[in-house]
Specification:
Radius of gyration: 20 Å
Number of helices: 21
Shape: globular
Helix content: 55-70%
Strand content: under 5%
Structural class: mainly alpha
Number of domains: 1
Length: about 375
Amino acid sequence: MKLDRGDLAYAAGLLLGVLVLVGLGVPALWADFAPHGDFAQHWFAARTMSAGGDPYDPTVWPRFMATLGGAPAATSYASPPYVPAALAPFALLRLDDAVAVWTVLGIALAALAVRSLLRTADVPHAVRLVFGFTLLASQASIAAILQGGFGFYLAAALAFALAWQGTVRQLRAGAAALVLAAQPQAFLFAWWSIIATAWRYREVRVLTVFALAGEALLASLALVPTLWQEWARGTSPLDALSSSRAVNVLNLFNFVGGDRGPYLAAGLVLLLTLVAIVVSPFGGHPIWVALTFVAAPFLIRSDQVALVVPLAIAVGMAGRTSQRTALVMAAIGALVLAPVAAILFGLGLPSGGDPYGAVVALAVFALVAFVRTPPQPA
């Protein structure tokens, strides 16, 4: 694929993002934070499983967390068993080396995936600079670098899945969408939109990938039920929902609404789901991808790196009628994802959590909701 002016603008944006990261001292902070962040937990679980151990053993997990200098968020490893199994190659490396490979690979994949999506969505060339910058300089991206979470990988998977859907690369689209299962609770609406679009346009190979994945999951439940049972016992959905790290609407309304928080959160999610149905009842619109970040029962700030995906699709749709509108929308999105998100994070620090994180997803949802013409598959 030849480089065009859009690619050059995107590369310039990435370079600006790197300069911002260096200016903020993120590389130096990364060396201190990343080996003690979220990836270290996945690395330990993968290493334990590779050695024949059980990462869900409640007697092992607290001791490991103590070596990282923090208290365990749960009594055992919290991700489903297929996550440490998939990360087994990283377990072959020392933790410091594994963190470095994880971080660089995640950023590279996200950069390639977003480039592919910007091309597919036909985002105006000049506007792609904004997305290159935002991909690296957003508050969520900085959090993903420092914490070592799944943020860049989720962004890459979502971008590749939506860029490839509707093309001859249907198998790749389905496979990329399955990577989102690293955070299965977070992408239900995005999956629904992908599956609904595949059903509507007879994308048999995408549907086949999802069907085979479901069969593989059922087979693993039958063949190794112990791991799944131990994971279910050690992971409390209610604890995750109420975690101070969660950037969900429940956390937001619990903070600002007190006892009425759960009712307000449920009402808002229901209302926004109805809005999405009105805008695009059959999926295939970025509003459903944005909704998945609003309605997810548990996400952390670094997972919001992938919010650039619905924003990019919406900007491309807007650019078909007005490049000025596309530029304004991209600029507002960049402001929300970078300085505004950072300010909201800072405002929440005195609470010991991240109560305002959901405002970022709500703002992106509002932006993409204004784009009313759904994209057509190639």
